[in-house]
Amino acid sequence: MTKKVFFLALILCQCLWGQAQNQKDSLTIRRFFDETLTVSESHNNLRELCKNIGARLSGSPEAEKAVKWAYAKLKSYGLDTVYLQEVKVPRWERGQVETFSVNGKSLRACSLGGSVGTDGVLEGEIIEVRDFEELEKLGKSKIKGKIVFINAPLDPKLIDTFHAYSACGSYRYRGASNASEYGAKAVVIRSLASEHDDFPHTGSMGYAKGAVKIPAMAISTNDADYLEKQLRTGTPQKAKMAMDCQTLPDVTSYNVIAELKGKRNPERILLVGGHLDSWDKGEGAHDDGAGVVHSMEAIRLFKRFGIRPNNTLRCILFMNEENGNRGGETYAKQSTQKGEKHLAALESDRGGLVPRGFSVDAPQSRFAFLQQQKIEDLLKPYNLHVMRKGYGGVDINPLKKYGEQTLIGFLPDPQRYFQYHHSDNDVFENVDRRELELGSASIASLLYLIDKYEFGVVN
Amino acid sequence: MTKKVFFLALILCQCLWGQAQNQKDSLTIRRFFDETLTVSESHNNLRELCKNIGARLSGSPEAEKAVKWAYAKLKSYGLDTVYLQEVKVPRWERGQVETFSVNGKSLRACSLGGSVGTDGVLEGEIIEVRDFEELEKLGKSKIKGKIVFINAPLDPKLIDTFHAYSACGSYRYRGASNASEYGAKAVVIRSLASEHDDFPHTGSMGYAKGAVKIPAMAISTNDADYLEKQLRTGTPQKAKMAMDCQTLPDVTSYNVIAELKGKRNPERILLVGGHLDSWDKGEGAHDDGAGVVHSMEAIRLFKRFGIRPNNTLRCILFMNEENGNRGGETYAKQSTQKGEKHLAALESDRGGLVPRGFSVDAPQSRFAFLQQQKIEDLLKPYNLHVMRKGYGGVDINPLKKYGEQTLIGFLPDPQRYFQYHHSDNDVFENVDRRELELGSASIASLLYLIDKYEFGVVN
């Protein structure tokens, strides 16, 4: 054989090998989707989590039930190991009383998570602001002794509803502290929701260091519209507010962790996760029951098809994303102390809606790997068309400060998410089976490709 | 000025002109989306159509109400002209009786559109087939005198649910004729639905020439599962079936048409449409209330922003897509007789779900226009990522036989459509406002680009 023929033969071999790999990849991905769409394990798991346990705020008995449920379910999959990681979590309780009325008319309201109670009935005149600038402009003379109504609607023009939500997030989180600076006695915010409806949406708030702790509530968007209209008439609007929520001592809880050990680099971790805790409204179906069952299903799919990963595939169901992120912080710290390295960490915490793609927080070379044509071609048949730079997720984010570089967020379609988020509307019935199952297979597919090629050359 | 400098200046001018056009395009598209997402005209229109009128099968009083409603609404937009085009439509009525029971247990069933009634109670033993092959194999000896249960589930593995639906369509349409060839006395099909639930889904069926006309029903997928299980026990399953549906004489109805006259080529038509009729179950919200309000909103957006199209923009709300396509046929024929030419025809008849893109039935050169990078870049911010070859739509399809070449179908995400389609589940509440409004703006945007560039060079 001449040299020329030899090299031609070598190139041909490489070509065929490449094609075979590519075919193997597309077949594996196809198998993931076939399995989720026919077996519906994610949907069945979500039903159990939502209907047998329901809302599961950190530190609540339901959160502990969820830990036990997830542990047992992951155990039943025959993975290499399933264990709990202790996490001290804050415990805030909504209590029994939660009312808000304006000039005698009762509005649909809920306490914001972390708020102090009213200690009886709190009364005051309402003053409306659209943003913090207006609050500042009105100043102490106008705000003092009043209940500040922060009426900042999510911008409906933003195609990505997460951008609209982010833009208003500080009104919920810092509204009470900012208003108390000017002597407000309480705040009530317009719910951070995308639709005009009757659900008040909760979520976490905090008090700045040294700030006077005043109570904070959210009212439904319909009731915010109503209140806005009443205020525009010029008639003073007197509110009565009562809530007996409180913060109790920290509680011991757990991250639930399951693993398939890597065959080539067992010490290197490929993480997939969502958070097990939820707010105490609805059933935490989209937020983040979906991410929990996505992650469980992703690791189950590897096991189901006998795919031994090169790196250790670790599924983590984090505790306490909603009001403290203690699970994420604890994990990142302890993992680093053990000297672990992560190939990548992928989080699902944007609901169980139809998949669009992934958001990547990584160095350019790794982003380039994910953006290449071969990866695009493999994901396109499943309508996964987004591979963009962006945020990974709250639970995995603490890994960054310990030097981990590759965080990925699963991106379902964002249109419907903020009508459910943190409200009584976030229930199992509002998660579509096919949309949810497609998410699990999408996540498993990307994990498979990352594990196989490790951000190197795709054959 | 030297020649060289002159040409350089010319090139620069063209460049700047191109950039300005591109900026103008992106601003116009942005305006369309801003308007639909804030004003919610499509959603409000859909509410009126669904809640004030509801289901509107061709020839029914509700269909006539829908014609009047659409005419008045389009009139209120101040377009150049709004008129009705007469269409003779078939009239089938479900009647009052519609029952199906098996060994005494009542199942959720509905008559298929076009079926004859049972003329009293029809009784018979059920025999199950999975497909037409099995029917043929069983033959006359096994089929004669029986009620054939065609139990063909939609394939859950297909990512595009329309493929799964199409694969089973013939069981609904031709099931009765095929079974009667072997002496069956009636057929009952498993609903063409993507989920396991309790809704029977109707839809059109027909009788082959010379076929014995036997009654045809659909049962819900849950009841099909139940019946399948009962049959597998080996116990004979005796059914009782009663339905008094009937076909009445044809009725005069209308396509509703509105136009904005073209300023450069008024004689050339750019068509956008959906169908006004629906099945007589639910409210015809996704099928095709969504297409109706999409089309109305698309033409309203041009008017709203003072965009005088180059070609005549014609919005057509077709009558009788569901059981005859007389509206589409009548329009295509009469338009051709008048010597009209169409630049393109775009139909929305796949529901009010979140937009993915468009399906194009056109010559390669026109497809290439739609596929080019500049178009892709303009649509990408709105998550419109699909521009593929494929079917346009039932109403516009007759145009093809008269030589029209460019038919386009709007493609919303297909995952949830077939849980609503042709059933009591197809109601206003199951259409998401943002998903619907994004569809209207997506359609208007593509029409704008097609009208402006007429499949030529995009600046």
TrEMBL record, chains A, B:
It comes from the Bacteria. One of its GO terms (cellular component) is extracellular region. Keywords: Carboxypeptidase, Endoplasmic reticulum, Glycoprotein, Golgi apparatus, Hydrolase, Lysosome, Metal-binding, Metalloprotease, Protease, Secreted, Signal, Zinc, Zymogen. It is found in: Endoplasmic reticulum; Golgi apparatus; Lysosome; Secreted. Pfam families: Peptidase_M28. GO terms for molecular function: carboxypeptidase activity; metal ion binding; metallodipeptidase activity. Residues 1-20 form the signal peptide. Gene3D superfamilies: 3.50.30.30, Zn peptidases (3.40.630.10). InterPro entries: CPQ, PA_dom_sf, Peptidase_M28. Residues 255-437 form the Peptidase M28 domain. One of its GO terms (biological process) is proteolysis. Homodimer. The monomeric form is inactive while the homodimer is active. This is Carboxypeptidase Q. It comes from Fulvitalea axinellae.
